[in-house]
Structures are given as structure tokens and as C-alpha cells.
Amino acid sequence: GPAVQxxxxxxxxxxxxxxxxxxxxxxxxxxxFDVWSNTFQQxxxxxxxxxxxxxxxxxxxxxxxxxxxxxxxxxxxxxxVQIRGDGQRDLEQLKQRLQPVASISAHNPYLLAxxxxxxxxxxxxxxxxxxxGEADLVKAKRLYHAYFG
Length: 149
Description:
Elements: H1 2-19, E1 29-34, E2 39-44, H2 63-66, E3 71-75, E4 80-84, H3 91-98, E5 103-107, E6 111-115, E7 120-124, E8 129-132, H4 137-148
Antiparallel strand pairs: 1-2, 3-4, 4-8, 5-6, 6-7, 7-8
């Protein structure tokens, strides 16, 4: 609890500096602390910047935040894989496409759940997909591409 409160307090303070236009007061060093042993360290990371880096270079663009990349994550202990990041999904159109090959078990404005021979899948309007009954990422990727393109 105390570590979370310290981090939140420091982050809010930095945000207020930035929002108020006091960018010269922003912290320029990486802060590390251990609340249990009451130690603090500041590390100068300015020397680590690379001019050709898209995120910390001369004109930062943060491509990882702006690109919609599909990410596959196995959910520990759930025999399921979550897929994130390919944008908004038209669930009505997906339902029409899947009805001949899958059994639709739930459909509302936020999700479409369906089953295949061995798996249950849930597609969310925000682009997320859960594949239940599969923990292998390679197999989950094949299933994802087979049903969602």
C-alpha cells in the first residue's frame, strides 16, 4: 500500500507540473525507492537517449502506442488465450459470417460468444478475443486467423 501511494503521489505531481506548463520542474531522472528499507536512488537516464530512437529521439512519436498490433497472451491456469489490439469489431457482421460454421451462444452489443468443435470463443466489440480450451499460443494464433482473418 505505501509504495503504491508514493508512486501515485509522485506521478500526479509530475502530471500537474506538465499540465501547468512548468516543464522545467519535471523530474529528469529515474527514481527508484524501497519503502521497506527507506532507500531512494536517482539515475540519470538522459545519456541513454538515442537520437534515432522513435520514442526517445529528436521527434518522439511512440509507435508502440499508436500502432494497432495484435498481441497474444496465455492466461495462466485458465486454459485460454487472450488476443488484444486489432481495433473495433463489427459484431453483427461477424455473427453473419460465423453462423454457418459455428454455434452462436451469446450476442449483445458488447460481445459475441460462439463455440466450434473444441473451443469456445468470445469476441468483444473493442477488438479483444478470448479463446477458451487452448493454452498453446501457436494453435491460438491459427484459430484466431481462421475465424477473424
